[in-house]
Amino acid sequence: MIPEDDAVAELRDDGAHRSARRAHARYASAAGQGRPQGTRFRTAPQAAPSRTVGAPARRMPAPAHGRPQGRHGVQPAYQRRSTTQARRKPIVPIIIVCAVAVALIAAIVLFVVPAVGRLISGSNEPAVEAGIEVQINIPQGASGDQIASILSQNHIIEDPKEYYATVSSMQADALLKPGDYLFTTLQDPEEVVQQLIDGPNVEGVTLTIPEGLTVQQTAERVQETYGISADDFLAQAKASNYVSDYPFLEGAYNDSLEGYLYPKTYSFQDDPTADEVIRAMLDQFETETAGLNLTDGANGLTAQQIVTMASLIERESSVESERSTIASVIYNRLDEGMPLQIDAAIVYARGGGSGTVTYDDLEIDSPYNVYQNTGLTPGPICSPSVSSIQAALNPDDTNYLYYVLSSAGDGSHKFSETYDEFQANVQEYRDSQS
């Protein structure tokens, strides 16, 4: 072999350097192309009164999600070297290998290690000791999920599925009662559900609010039971104090909670405040009406008007099966533009009392005087039951315009389409009272 002189060697080395730089440039160019990232998109969802047919509730389209797929692979560019060229370790592939290794380690640290840690910590967590007394409160209107969560969090029944299965096997879905309970950890599920059926086993003072009470009457009951001043209760019972938490109060007439303090039996372990009592009643109203779509109204009426009509039905009916028929009379009279002429509204307008409505009462200057004014009262006149609210939403289909107490004396009514029929029914009732 003929030895190379210094000049030839220098030229050869320089050529090798340029070749390596060209390879590096081609690799960097290819690697720099990048790849389009996947995108996510969302299609945005776009005794009187008259029946009007309400528009059906609109069903909004469910949101659609799509993720277009597409990836462009990157092929490394390289140059094959001859055996006579100086061998140099490729720098960029080494960097990529290192980056992949770092990413893999990071993934292990972020995902695998915590998962294993959770498994380990779970296996090392001390078991809950059975038989420890636990006192809990089941709120008014609590759902099955809420009850299961309370029992599980307090380790009374560890597995919510076990609770659901027991409730189902005992057919107890509608029998569970709110209130304060004393249980023990890891208690037998059937014993727990049976106690929830029997009712609270911790002493507490109960408050019973019958259907048809006004806010004033409710305040008096609260005062009798818990010693909360009726005046303080009424001062707190303003819609503006609660509308942010209970949207159904939006637009409540005269800033009043009339119609929304739901009638039911309530239990409080300690001496409650006026605010706590009111919130329990509003929670119960929300629970009772959750499936009725009050926000959409019905038959052309707003949610506020539905509750108002329900309060009239509540005070006019003592036989539950007649409530939807009385609702039909109110709607029919509204259709005809006739005054409702409901005495219960006159009693409310005069400030209450149990005395008979007089002719002087019919002259009261009040928006609640439905003898002088047509249409519904401007707001509810009492707190209606859910059955009266359902009747207001689903009246019977009749042509009745009148009703009067029947001679049977059981609180039922006789209904009629004409005034002559009504007068005959009135006379029949009067005769039965003589």
TrEMBL record:
Region described as Disordered: spans on this chain: 1-83
Single Gene Ontology BP annotation: peptidoglycan biosynthetic process
Gene Ontology cellular-component terms listed: plasma membrane
Membrane topology: Single-pass membrane protein
Subcellular location: Cell membrane
Source organism superkingdom: Bacteria
GO molecular function: lytic endotransglycosylase activity
Site (Important for catalytic activity) location in chain: 316
Annotated keywords: Cell membrane, Cell wall biogenesis/degradation, Lyase, Membrane, Transmembrane, Transmembrane helix
Keyword Cell membrane tagged: yes
Record keyword Nucleotide-binding present: no
E.C. code: 4.2.2.29
InterPro entries xrefs: MLTG-like
Function comment: Functions as a peptidoglycan terminase that cleaves nascent peptidoglycan strands endolytically to terminate their elongation.
Family affiliation: Belongs to the transglycosylase MltG family.
Name the record gives this protein: Endolytic murein transglycosylase
